[in-house]
Structures are given as C-alpha cells and as structure tokens.
Amino acid sequence: MLTQLRQGEELTLRQQFRLICTLSIPAILAQISSIVMQYIDASMVGSLGAEASASIGLVSTSAWLFSGICGATASGFSIQTAHCIGAGDIRKARGVMRQSFSSALLVSLFLMLCGILIAGRLPVWLGAAPELRSDASRYFLIFACSLPIVQINRLAGGMLQSSGNMRTPGMLNILMCMLDVVFNGLLIFPPREVAAAGMTFHMPGLGLGVVGAALGTALAQLVTAVLMTGYLCFRSDLFRIRRGECWRPRRDCIRRALRLALPIGLENVMMCGAMIATTRIVAPLGAAAIAANSFAVTAESLCYMPGYGIAEAAAALTGQSAGAGRQDLTRRFARMAVWIGVGIMALTGAAMFAGAPFMMSLLTPEEEIRQLGIRILRIEVFAEPLYAASIVASGALRGTGDTMIPSVMNFVSIWFVRIPLALLLVAGCGLSGVWIAMCLELCFRGTIFLIRLYHEKWLKVSRT
Questions:
Q1: Fewer Cβ in 10 A, N or C end of the chain?
Q2: For residue 20, is pLDDT > 60?
Q3: Average pLDDT, stretch 309-321?
Q4: Considering only CA atoms, which of 49, 117, 88 is closest in space to residue 326?
Q5: 8 A C-beta contact, residue 307 and residue 344
Q6: Of the candidates 166, 151, 146, 130, which has an alpha carbon nearest to the alpha carbon of residue 283?
Q7: What is d(CA 357, CA 371) in angstroms, rounded to the nearest whole number?
Q8: How far apart are CA 277 and CA 420, in angstroms?
C-alpha cells in the first residue's frame, strides 16, 4: 500500500484505515515497551524506599529535556527522508541518512558535556532536600554520559520508521525492555535468595541502588542502539550502506534539518522546562509528593503511549503523502489517525481510572504514596481523549514539515495555561491542584490542535 501511495494510485478508505493500523501497532508496542521499562525501573527502585524514588523523580524531567533534544535532532532528518521516499528519490533519502549520523552525534556529544557539567548542582537548583541530592546527581550524571547512545537509537529508529518499517524498531524496543529487567536486577539489588515455585534460587547482584537503575537502562539502550544501527546500515533495503558513499554533511541538508528540528527542539526545551518548573512547584510538598508525582507520570504514560505510536505512523504517512504531492491523502490520513487516537485513548483512560490502585501498587509499597498517586491519576483520566488529539495531530502536522506552529501551540498551552493554574491551585489543593491544572491544560491543548487540523493552513506548508 505504501508503494501504491508513492506511485499515485488511489487508496480506498478501508485501505487507509488498514495502513494506519498496520503501521501504528508496532509503534504502539514499541512505545508501551519503553513505558514498561520505566515501570520496571520505578518498581525496582520503589522497593528501596521513598527517598530513592524521589531522587529519580526529581531529575526525570531534566532527563526528558535532554532526550527530547536528541529526538528533535532525529526528527529533523527523518522528516526529510520521509519526503524523499514519498517523492521516489531513494538515493537522496539514503544521502540524508548518512549525513544525519555525523551531525546528530556532534549534537549529542555537546548535550553530554552540558549534562556532566550541571549534574552536581541540578538537584540543588530543583529545591531537593539534602538527603536526595547525592543519588539524584549520580543518576543524572550516568544518564548524561549515555546521551550519544540515546541519540543513535532515536536516529536509527526514526529512519526506519520514516520508510514505513515500524516492526524492526518495535521489536528492538521490546528487547530493550527485557534487557532492562535483567540489567536492573543484577545492578540495583545485592546478592539475595529468591523463593519461587517452592524452590529457592540465589540471585547475584551488585547492590548499586539508584546508580544501578541508571546503569541498567544505559546498558539496555546501548545493546539496542548497536542492533538498530546495524539493521539500518546493513540489512535495510532502502538504507543499506555501499562502498564509496559520502558521509560528509552537506549545507543544504543541515539547513533543512535545522529548519525542521529547531522548532521541535525549542518546544522540548520549553515544555520540559515547564515540567522542571512543575517539579519545583511540587518539591516543597515533600518526598512523598515528589515520589507520587513521578510514579503517577509513569503510570499515566501507559495510557497515552498508544497516542504517540499512532502519531509516529501518522507522521510517516503524511510525510510520504506530502512528498508524493498528494494533499487529499495527506488530509485524510491526518484526520483519520487523530480520531483513531482519540478513541483508543478514551478507552485506555477508562481503564486507567479503574486500574489506578493496581497500577500504583506495582510501583511502590508505600501506602501514602499509593493513595496520592491514585487520586491524581483519576483526575487526569478526563483529559485523555483531547490529549490524544494534540499528540496525534502534532505528529501528523510535523510529518508534512509543519513544525513551527505546533511547537508554538504547545509552548503557549503549557506555559500560559498549565504553570499559572498550577501555581494558583497548589496552595489550596496540594498535589491534586497541580494535576487539576494539568488536566485543564491538556483539554485546552487538544482543542486548539483540532482547530489547527481542520483549518488546513498546514497543507500549504512547502515540503522540504
């Protein structure tokens, strides 16, 4: 069906629906596997106590900021490849892929240096209690050192997805989740005896605690990045490297990547900056509130990750449709994907409301943290359908090259709606007030994205 799309053949409504679903399912599984990995980290560290959980929760938003910039860099190149593939220019698509690696690696090395320099002071800037600072700093330092690995993983996966290959990145991300279980089990806990099925087993371990969680995740990402890049460069029919090909970055390719990635990168900086500001608002409420906030974010992500999987499929489809010059198909793919996302996340939101106690019980044994987490999760449920609209619409619009306006919309929504509301409500409602503010802001954001989608000015954006 992707070949039919590129060759200008008509696709029936049923074929369009099947194509969105076929590409979305592996992407959704990949997204869910990454969230399962976060669940594993959170539950393993949660068993060490509230302070260990809070130390990771404190710097998690800062980690999202850095990894978000890596993702934006990858998007700047993968959007170009989707357009080239849609236009039938496979040679140019392969050229963009080669140039992306040297350019993106430089960006990630710069980010790594910045992360190393701020790791020691970051918990202090975030208002952490003295007992949380050491573990939080060490966790973030290890994460910063792994940023080149994160960048390569994002870039290789993005290139494969831009060609319509969602299956390989999905399978490798599931493998990453499984490796994370193994590495975390070996690195977080000390040697111990484990009883199962009436038998007792000796489990080796290094007992590194929070540091072990950071190292386990980094090692799992390293293995996945090697396999993902190996598949891209040596097994992919479209991108397999050949002898004598030039890897030197070209000015026009870098310029287009900057034009596409810069709005996404600035958006990530501003949005993660807002998440850091939210963490700063929550920090004075104490370790239990910090941990509950972090666990609830992890629990909720299982609900909205299907939206991000559909958004990846939508970006690939609108990108190739735009590259092929097919505005009618671009419009239909965008709208259909958005409403599929809204329907799925309405169902996952209902499941989250019912399953909140079970989800929080998996993450922490602390009763106070569990009850706080259940309360705020059930607040967020009511925003999930409109949150889906913003996630999927943003992916669909960016696939066409419309990166600036969605970034501005996200920035305005989170900084001028969420943060003021959180500051207003936290004094009287505590952590619940922060999440009420989040719920209202996500509803606002979904509404403005639907308006943008149906006004269709984004269809006039020139493809790169």
A1: N
A2: yes
A3: 84
A4: 88
A5: yes
A6: 130
A7: 8
A8: 11
Pair of tokens at residue 64 = 């999202």
CA distance 168 to 115: 30
CB-based contact 46:364 (threshold 8 Å): yes
- The arithmetic mean of pLDDT across residues 91-119, rounded, is 89
Average pLDDT for residues 103-108, to the nearest whole number?
Answer: 88
CA 21 to chain centre: 20
Could you give the CA distance from residue 215 to residue 204 in angstroms, rounded to a whole number? 16
Contact call for residues 229 and 152 (beta carbons, < 8 A): yes
43 — phi, psi (to 5°)? -70, -40
Q: Residue by residue, what is the 3-state secondary structure of the chain? A: CHHHHHCCCCCCHHHHHHHHHHHHHHHHHHHHHHHHHHHHHHHHHHCCCHHHHHHHHHHHHHHHHHHHHHHHHHHHHHHHHHHHHHCCCHHHHHHHHHHHHHHHHHHHHHHHHHHHHHCCCHHHHCCCCHHHHHHHHHHHHHHHHCHHHHHHHHHHHHHHHHCCCCHHHHHHHHHHHHHHHHHHHHHHCCCEEEEECCEEEEECCCCCCHHHHHHHHHHHHHHHHHHHHHHHHHCCCCCCCCCCCCCCCCHHHHHHHHHHHHHHHHHHHHHHHHHHHHHHHHHHHCHHHHHHHHHHHHHHHHHHHHHHHHHHHHHHHHHHHHHCCCHHHHHHHHHHHHHHHHHHHHHHHHHHHHHHHHHHHHHCCCHHHHHHHHHHHHHHHHHHHHHHHHHHHHHHHHHCCCCHHHHHHHHHHHHHHHHHHHHHHHHHHCHHHHHHHHHHHHHHHHHHHHHHHHHCHHHHCCCC
First CA to last CA distance, the chain: 23
Phi, psi (5° rounding) for residue 436? Answer: -65, -40
Q: What is the mean pLDDT of residues 41-49?
A: 70
What is the average pLDDT score of the chain? 84
| Residue 130 burial class via C-beta count within 10 angstroms: exposed 0-12, middle 13-18, buried 19 and up | exposed
| pLDDT value, residue 462 | 44
Residue 440: C-alpha distances to residues 247, 305, 333, 376, 437 (Å): 47, 20, 28, 13, 5
424 has pLDDT over 50: yes
Which residues are CB-neighbours of 214 under 8 A, at least 6 positions away? 138, 139, 142, 143
What's the pLDDT at 461? 55
The residue count of the chain comes to: 464
